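Input/output pair, single chain:
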Amino acid sequence: QVQLVESGGGLVQAGGSLRLSCAASRRTFSNYAMGWFRQAPGEERAFVAALRWSGANVYYADSVKGRFTIFRDSAKDTVYLQMNSLKPEDTAVYYCAGCYVGRTWDFANSNEYDYWGQGTQVTVSS
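Output:
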């Protein structure tokens, strides 16, 4: 069992930046993957970004490409989501998620992930 603990949410003005962190409770391995999802009020949970722990592949939703960056610190078993040029439509609860993956992996499908953080609120004011 892997527990994920998130931090870094908050209130920011449009155009500002935030960095979210997600720490895993146990050592991760190269066949591990992590992603970020978000859920706005009244909407379904949506994919934001994901990466394989090996660092070979990184994926983004079209809505955040060029503004958000996902990266990890292997020594800390932590994944980050750097969010720049934030927009009001980025307002949501952000969740990190983890899973062990094989050669194929549907990174944007939340059902692929076995472990979830508690969620952190990001609010972008206009």
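The CA atoms of residues 36 and 96 lie 4 Å apart. The radius of gyration is 14 Å.
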